[in-house]
């Protein structure tokens, strides 16, 4: 390295190298999805014989027919949609409510509760698998829809993101509203929330994505196949047949369909995802 | 609400606003931890309630048998710890370095298509861990894409998910330093916690390597975004000043950019540590601990012990030990990466090394 | 504070759950039946039989095929809401019996004495016969006719004892064919232990007997076959299981159970092979049986109706129908002749019923045996005595729990 990167060919060469590296990694990160999509449209012998090929030969939708006809897939989709919508709605409302109170409303015990939120954020989720099962079982909620939704309807990280957001908003606006005689909830609902739109969109997207993909919680919350969500259903479709070259088009088709909603939201709301990751970073 | 002064209604509203959150977090996070702590002190076998009379109280036995009592429980627990240690040791540096490297390249101002590259690298992170695990099962199947790719290069790929051989064992065998089938007695006959040194030194198995690759692949994008956000905060004047000083690219990275990225680096390593000690979904979907327990992790073992073997006390004890491990490893990391002034002996040692090399 | 109050108040409301006898309901029942199906054919056959019984008796039955029955059942039992009837694999039976999850109804069945003794033993825990064996399979020796002939061997050369197995295998190896492919698990190697007169636990299931000289002799014999290239594990010939290696014509012999018939017919139609009883060892003949029982939950509200259901599922006629649908053998001695008339080629499998043994019948064995399986994968290079000492230690620890 000479340090003279502003000069001609050396710099151009280095840029080409950088592009080459970037493109190579883009392939590494995206080609598996290409293979997944292609394989979902392949026949089983074709999938086994040409695992790398991006072009199915012949093209068949047999795997999708099987996914819808031969598995619990339609039911899983319905369950996933219901659970995801309930959790997302709950989180957006309750997280912002609590975040606002922690940022703005002076009440006794606020410091303690803020500390609790931070402590809860620090508890690793996987450690809670057996504990969650115990409490759901004890409350008689095990193996119900409620068990799938209720424990996830508030998340500490979301509360914290909203708290940080409200702290950054100047208090003058709500003071004006309060002068007009509006109650606390009125002020929150009609003045504060509309202002918080970008943060709420970020929260909505993060909640949707995480509850749509949620897996470990469903493992300890339910066991009745009628209550399976997509990740749980797909996991059961796959687990136990490791390494066997069987039914890959079917499994990949199911996984592909489960990925599509998040992919669409990702493409449409990219910048909010990026912001979400940055918000997550400011947690510490 | 309304007229009775400003503070009182606000205080009431404050409580009302946080009440749902307190209830949910209290009932589904704090309370269960207490319940699990109790279960970890009992021999509850999963029949009926763990709080009914007649459930045997065993004190700390569930914990001591993980460390002190010879037997399969300890063997499996120690194997899971070993597996996860290698998993952490491989995945955390790999995902951090990859994320940092990608961020540094994507951050170039002259770069075209930055949004595309950034999104491409980040996309795997937003998809479902279960769906991605299915894709990797296919990629690394015996007749899958990776082995097909290796075949193009003239390499006969391994049976990824069926291969329990540890990478360090393989390397030692390959170099002719030790025979995996007849390990040196010094290592095979002595050990710690019931596992011989030879077993401790196995390295991640070939099967575990696939899961390491998977997790590096799915997390690098998120961490890249964290680095990118931090890079935006590096004042351009600083870089330009360094440029004027005639510092070369490596020197600028080492002395200007990296120090500025220290908080982001700290965050990424912390998140990486916490995440990698918790690996569960991928194990559940891809391997269930097989082959030969080489992908068994404490998180999965705790689950399997409770729900598969009906030993809820042991399972709960494992998850509390795992919790302590996570806390301890983040504390250790905090200590290792703490801000040190220039006179700290360790730093000088590093600098000396740098100068002489 | 609110949180503290909630936390303190909640455990109290859970106190109503848990033990105590479950009140029984008479009359029409809604039974839930959890099965771990071997495939579409079994699910269909069991569902059809269940619906037929339900319609005739005025009950309703829901048959639920499990993806992972151990996990689903474990959580259901802990959740105090298990299905009324469920398949119990013999290898896990003692686990369920030991925690009191099973109703010991089988000893009161009129047909209790008609089940094969080996199967009764497989579902007996602390001298109580808990649940009715659904059906069973045994191990036998399969011989590929074409490869056998290519090695110059005839029907008379089919091995009848350990020495004969070595001789025949050597002659097959001499013409460059893999003589025997054998799965690397206790579920195969255990048969050699029986043939040598050994077994990992005592007959009453209370003591570990893994480190006996008989067991060692068995492991050393199998080790000899592996070391001399007379036997291979499926992984060594790049196959997923022995049946695949046999079906693809990669080996002259294999040792598998009844299920191999269906698998070969489906995947390798036209393969010419014969089935024989396993070669006898120094202590005589020995084979392993694999079986499942109809477990009835100790917490079911419909125990009487569930017993009625199981009786209907285990009659000779019902079992013969299942045998036709998915290739298992009836668990009743009285169904033996009828079965042989329909499936004469299964004689060697059925003959094994007289000297077969089920899986190691004691609680907490699942982990122990899977640990032993991973040891067996290295049998060719490991020391059998060390392996058996480890097994002895683990079984002893598990039995002491």
Automatic annotation (TrEMBL), chain A:
Occurrences of domain ABC transmembrane type-1 (ranges): 77-269
Biological process, per Gene Ontology: transmembrane transport
InterPro entries: MetI-like (IPR000515), MetI-like_sf (IPR035906)
Alphabetically ordered keywords of this record: Cell membrane, Membrane, Transmembrane, Transmembrane helix, Transport
Localization: Cell membrane
Main location: membrane
Pfam families attached to this UniProt entry: BPD_transp_1
Signal peptide: none
TM helices/strands, residue ranges: 16-35, 73-94, 115-135, 147-166, 187-208, 252-274
GO CC annotation: plasma membrane
Top-level taxon of origin: Bacteria
Record membrane topology: Multi-pass membrane protein
Family membership: Belongs to the binding-protein-dependent transport system permease family.
Protein name, per record: Sugar ABC transporter permease
UniProtKB/TrEMBL annotation, chain B:
Stored InterPro entries: ABC_transporter_permease, MetI-like, MetI-like_sf
TM spans (from-to): 12-39, 85-107, 119-141, 206-231, 260-280, 312-332
Source organism of the structure: Catellatospora bangladeshensis
Pfam families: BPD_transp_1
Any one GO biological process: transmembrane transport
All copies of domain ABC transmembrane type-1, residue ranges: 81-333
Protein name per Swiss-Prot or TrEMBL: ABC transporter permease
GO cellular component: plasma membrane
PROSITE patterns: ABC_TM1
Family the UniProt entry places it in: Belongs to the binding-protein-dependent transport system permease family.
Keyword field contains Transmembrane helix: yes
Keywords: Cell membrane, Membrane, Transmembrane, Transmembrane helix, Transport
Recorded superkingdom: Bacteria
Bilayer topology: Multi-pass membrane protein
CDD domains recorded: TM_PBP2
Compartments, record wording: Cell membrane
TrEMBL record, chain C:
GO biological process: maltodextrin transmembrane transport; maltose transport
Domain of life: Bacteria
Tagged with keyword Signal: yes
Organism: Catellatospora bangladeshensis
Record-stated family: Belongs to the bacterial solute-binding protein 1 family.
GO CC terms of this entry: ATP-binding cassette (ABC) transporter complex, substrate-binding subunit-containing
Pfam families: SBP_bac_8
Organism placement in taxonomy: Bacteria, Bacillati, Actinomycetota, Actinomycetes, Micromonosporales
A molecular-function term among this protein's GO annotations: maltose binding
Keywords assigned: Signal, Transport
Alphabetized InterPro entries for the sequence: SBP
Name the UniProt record assigns to this protein: Extracellular solute-binding protein
